[in-house]
């Protein structure tokens, strides 16, 4: 009876013993052969050495050949979790059809969540998904990563990923919970007013939070409600704050020569103490510029006077700060809570 696992049986020793038995047999054979044929002793020794070497070499080689299982086994490369790349743009879900094939962060309010018999979950932004401009899908294989998808129903969310088209409907496939966040969605102009007002053209961007607009042939200075950008030099002050030029340039990129809607806030006066109009600035596509400046890290939430979207803007600021965007980056020291004071 054989014992393994160190209880008296040594496979290596057995293999080694077999090798030397073969060498001994070869030696005896060659000795007998050469003695009968009266061959000199030197040739006998040479024969022993050569024959033994060949046998040992063959045995040694065969002992390290891979087994059948070794040859058929293909090492599996460990799966590396794909990192979710940062989206290049933020859009409202109604704009998704214009961005198919692009990586984006899509914002909107979820109408309902439906799970099919096959275990696929559909996050729908409209009551009728067939006519909805956007939706999101969680396939059954990834369902375990989303333990409570029903929580998204009725919530405003941000969904990040590649916008694909399925049967003509734009969608993002969710493979990781980090792709969807419950939170604030930038107000669309339709949520602020019932009737679309007149469009006015921006004629000049003074800095990140102040512009000049042609209103009925007269140029008015307009101060954006709820935001405060770092200062840049002006006729009244030589002060320049960290990230002031970048904020001014970004506002110029978004607004200069653009048609805009100017919307009042019921919690604010019509003008400030400098006689500037106080307004929310919406682009023609419904984008709220005030919110966008904070969201992208070009402005602070202006906390010194109450306004309609103060809580939402505070949320946007916290998100930008957490992600170290723009003025919250290492370039400035605003992240530590120091270095910024407002001149309004």
Characterize the structure shown.
With 344 residues, the protein is an alpha+beta fold. It has 3 domains: 15-55; 90-182, Nucleic acid-binding proteins (OB fold (Dihydrolipoamide Acetyltransferase, E2P), Beta Barrel), CATH 2.40.50.140; 189-336, OB fold (Dihydrolipoamide Acetyltransferase, E2P), CATH 2.40.50.90. 26% of the residues lie in helices and 22% in strands. The protein is built from 7 helices and 16 strands. The chain has a 5-stranded mixed sheet with strand order 3-4-5-8-7, with no helix packed on it. Strands 10-11-12-15-14 form a 5-stranded mixed β-barrel. A 4-stranded mixed sheet has the order 1-2-6-9, with no helix packed on it. The model is unreliable at 1-9 and 59-84 (pLDDT under 50).
Topology (SSEs and partners):
Layout: H1 11-36, H2 41-64, H3 68-72, E1 90-92, E2 103-109, E3 112-115, E4 121-124, E5 135-138, E6 156-162, E7 164-166, E8 169-173, E9 180-182, H4 189-192, E10 200-207, E11 210-215, E12 218-224, E13 227-228, H5 244-255, E14 259-263, E15 277-283, H6 289-295, E16 300-301, H7 310-322
Parallel strand pairs: 1-2, 5-8, 12-15
Antiparallel strand pairs: 2-6, 3-4, 4-5, 6-9, 7-8, 10-11, 10-14, 11-12, 13-16, 14-15
What structural class do you assign from the helix and strand content? alpha+beta
Helix content: 25-40%
| Radius of gyration (Å) | 38 Å
Which spans of ≥5 residues are poorly predicted at pLDDT below 50?
1-9, 59-84
Strand order of the largest sheet: 3-4-5-8-7
Distance between the termini: 94 Å
Q: What's the domain count?
A: 3
What is the H/E order?
A: HHHEEEEEEEEEHEEEEHEEHEH
